[in-house]
Amino acid sequence: MSNGLAHRIEKLNAFVACANAESGHSPVFMICGLCRRVAETTAQTRRSVLDQAARELGFDIRQTTIELEGRCTQCQGWWMTLIATQAVSVQIDGKQILQDVDLSISRGEIVTLVGPNGSGKTTLLRVLIGAQSPTNGVVVREAGLRIGYVPQRLAIDRAMPMTISRWLALSGVSSINERVSTAERVGIGSLLQQQMASLSGGEFQRALLAHALLLRPDLLVLDEPTQGLDQPAVAAFYRLIDDVRREQGCSVLMVSHDLHVVMRSSDHVICLNGHVCCQGTPTLVSAAPEYQALFGFGTEGALALYRHEHDHSHEHAEGHHDA
Predict the structure, then answer these.
(1) At residue 264, what are phi and psi to the nearest 5 degrees?
(2) pLDDT tens for residues 88-124?
């Protein structure tokens, strides 16, 4: 973890200068999940506890580095709940789609939904944006909450003339300059006169994203936004989402099957299969029996997602409903 006069921060995939370079030490890094500021302190008390536990196991600790994620002083006042569900259930044509779903999304965080096909992920998104009424339970939204939605797919008839410029005008934003600058921000500024039906998968998703961003959302909702994209396009799209989140200060809720990206970039992960199997920070969820029953002990491929038979128990483990 340490590297000369610098330390590697796994959460950020980056190096920071060592604050105590002249002495051997066991650092604790406090990472703000919003602005990504990093503060370093030492872990003497924690180190002694770990040393004792290690001795009992016959293990020799050579280096202890701890990463804690939260909110720095500057960001704490900005961190509040935007939307929450309380015991939300949905029945459609007599079929139970969702059962007693509790979740909350705070300002500035990235929340990712994972789960097998048919687990109710898209239905839950529709409930949150107000397109589907819950059969039972309530959805609580911050007053005046603005939501930008990027759907899983959008069919456009190739015979219908619809340029990107016209598509963005349908957002209701009258300022041409604002529409052009938003298109440029998402990387399609040079394509404004292109027909939507002629775009590549990545370009099409960026056009949908630009439309959503023109609403200046507090919450950006994306339903499998990288479906059908190749790996470079997937990586570029997620980098763009993270940049936009920081620039606009919006929260992000997305459905994704890109497990490595989910566990690296999300603040909160929710495993759904008609109900919440487990949820919490990526570290807690990846260690949860429910998550491991879904994905296996590694995340070598998303195919495990579709092999999930949901035969695990739902006893509350530590971090099961981590906030």
Answers:
(1) -90, -35
(2) 999 999 999 999 999 999 888 899 998 888 889 999 9
Angular region, 246: left φ>0, alpha ψ -120 to 50, beta rest:
alpha
DSSP 159-227: TS--BHHHHHHTTS---HHHHHHHHHHTT-GGGTTSBGGG--HHHHHHHHHHHHHTT--SEEEEESTTT
d(CA 172, CA 323): 36
Determine the Cα–Cα distance for residues 283 and 319; give it in Å rounded to an integer: 10
* CA 123 – CA 90 distance, rounded (Å): 8
* Vertex 98 angle, CA 94 and 102, to 5°: 150
CB 100 within 8 A of CB 87: yes
Altogether, the residues listed in the chain come to a count of 323
- Is residue 218 a contact partner of residue 251, using CB atoms and an 8 Å limit? yes
Q: Are 50 and 60 in contact (CB under 8 A)?
A: no
At 300, is the secondary structure helix, strand, or coil? coil
Whose CA is closest to 280, among 46, 33, 82, 104?
104
Q: Is the dihedral of CA 52, 285, 238, 178 positive or negative?
A: negative
The pLDDT tens digits of the residues spanning 238-280 come to: 888 888 888 888 999 999 877 766 667 788 889 898 999 888 8
